[in-house]
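Minutes, project check-in
Item: structure for the 386-residue chain
Input as provided by the requester:
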Amino acid sequence: MPQPLKIAFYTDTFLPAVDGVVISILNFRKELERRGHEVHIFAGGSKASMEVAKNYDNVHIIQGMKFKKYPQYSLSFFPFYPSINVMRTKFDIIHAHTPFMIGTQGLMRAKINQTPLVGTFHTMVTDKSIIRDYTFDNKMLQRFITKYSWHYMRLFYNSCNEVIAPSGAIKSMLEKNGISDVDVVPNSVDLSRFNTKIDGDAAREKLGFGDKDRVVLYAGRVSREKHLETMIRAAASIKEDRIKFVIAGTGPAYDYYKGMVRKHGLGHKFTFTGFIPNQELPPYYAAADAFCIPSTFETQGMVALEAMACGKPVIGADFLALKELINNGKNGEKFKPNDYRDCARKIRKVINNTSSYRDMSNTAKLYSLQNTTDRLIDAYKRILDN
């Protein structure tokens, strides 16, 4: 394998949008460059993304149209022309982190230049709720996309030399749906930023909590597929006023969930922080006593790992990646997906016994930036050696 490698990441999402794909790309780039490799990012984005990119070397933004159903994102329908000036650059590996407009550019570039291609399946884009909420309003078109979404995924990912799944659950799902050459390379948690040494007192005071309050945090995208209604309904069934809930983040369902909290008369129990810049997020984990993630959508559960890295037990849905990440009685508790009563039981159990959960940091260390980058480089090496 040549050293150092010249690597191209292709992605349809970039800063200032913050999601698992963006965090994964930036974490891997940071560690790969620390080891002497050169990483270029080709990303779809907005004018704001172009401004952010000025702070980075080798980030090429292909400006797109604002995505009305999710204003954080842009759709780059014509991604080819803007990057002609760097098309002559030769790469050792092209890594597509999304299978859409910009990811397709990466695929075409790999085929034209005969460059090895890696594709990561980061997001459950085939999920019916995603297709319903983020595509066309026309029901016939939604049914068409739902019917043929896996056909497209097979076409895209089976064009790659290797496919990366961030968890064993996603590897099994991809293989079940006819995608081959799948390897597991988890996304990383940056333990220099998320760890048990972080002081959460200032964040706790800012949120208005006293010493007797017990805080359950959710952090991440506020969207319908995250099933935050399960946590909200669980909170409604928990009568202890000392147990408080924080929803940190924003997204297309922000107003929907705030309305649900009002409807259930839970304004005294819930705090909505709105958008929190990623660099300011660690103290919010430190301010909490536990973390709750009711999503049945997670391909890995990055926020759950960040919470564990900060020493917080995680209460999560027993589904997909969370199923293998959470170990009952060790680093948190799993509950039946979409079952608010079971969610409430597990929240009470964890909150009343937080000191008995001790394995969170050990779990997070398995997903350190160093360990996951080792696995990514091993995947690159296999492809290049073949």
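Outcome recorded: The radius of gyration is 21 Å.
No further action items on this chain.
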